Amino acid sequence: MDIIDKLNKELLKQNFMGHSYTSSELDKYREVAHRYACMENAISVLSDMQTNISYIYYGGFAEALGLKETEKIDCIHSIWEEGIFSLIHPDDLYQKNLQELKFFHFIKHQPKNKRKDFYLINKLRIKDATGHYHSTLHRLFYIPVKNAPNAMWLALCLYTPLSLEMPGKSAVVYSVTGQLIELKNKDSTQILSEREKQVLRLIHQGWTSKQIAEILTISIHTVNRHRQEILGKLQVKNSIEACRIAKDLGVL
């Protein structure tokens, strides 16, 4: 299972309810991203989920990594900054993507007027041109759509050197008070319906479709339909992968 595929499905296929914006609205947030790059020497990535375009601003940290010269701006046709992802330790990248998926579901369960008050932090290892890994703080902010508050229009990612120790490798920050909130698996458990969870648990226990049908008193056709729904929602190719990602998300 590729977590990026799952995130693509969640982020790029949101219902924007005919949301449209002016260039001045986008320019306002692009200026915010630019200022983070200038003020914090951050690598700042502003991603537009509606158009699948990202704007990358390179502060001094990019030069330290040998990634880009400072003051440079890139515009890429993707919400994923692959050039940066390629430098992140593979173990950290998987966990980063998994936590972003959980954070997306966490945000959607917050009161609509509070969603802008939370952001995600991750501790990452990013390597420079010599292969040396640098401890890095990654922050993710979501900007919702005004007239479709269940949809997240923009995502702002910031990469800066990690200068202070942080508890754990990931947490949500409530910016009003500074409170750290650990992402619980329950924030991702609503991806599957209750019946689909039942079927997946029985699959995980090794039961066949025929046995599952007997246990749940449903037809084999219904069991197979649930299997296909599970694979589709988790964006996996088989039941083994479905069980693995479901464990990571806390569904199992």
Q: Can you describe what's shown?
A:
With 252 residues, the protein is α+β, with helices and mostly antiparallel strands. It contains nine helices and eight strands. The radius of gyration is 20 Å and the shape is globular. Residues 185-250 form the HTH luxR-type domain. It comes from Phocaeicola barnesiae. This is Helix-turn-helix transcriptional regulator.
Helical run tally: 9
In terms of quaternary structure, the protein is single chain
Mean pLDDT: 87
Integer tally of domains: 2
Q: At the first level of CATH, what is the class of the largest domain?
A: Alpha Beta
Query: What's the shape?
Result: globular
Strand order of the largest sheet: 3-2-1-6-5-4-7-8
Low-confidence stretches: none
SSE run: HHEEHEHHEEEEEHHHH
Give a quick set of tags describing it.
alpha+beta, Beta-Lactamase, Arc Repressor Mutant, subunit A, 2 domains, 8-stranded antiparallel sheet, globular, transcription regulation
How would you sum up this structure in a few lines?
This protein is an alpha+beta fold and 252 residues long. Helices cover 40% and strands 22% of the residues.
Task: Furnish the topology, listing elements before pairings.
Blueprint: H1 3-12, H2 23-40, E1 43-48, E2 53-58, H3 60-65, E3 73-76, H4 82-85, H5 90-108, E4 118-127, E5 133-144, E6 152-161, E7 170-174, E8 179-181, H6 194-204, H7 209-216, H8 220-234, H9 239-249
Domain HTH luxR-type: 185-250
Pfam family, one: GerE
InterPro entries: Sig_transdc_resp-reg_C-effctor, Tscrpt_reg_LuxR_C, WH-like_DNA-bd_sf
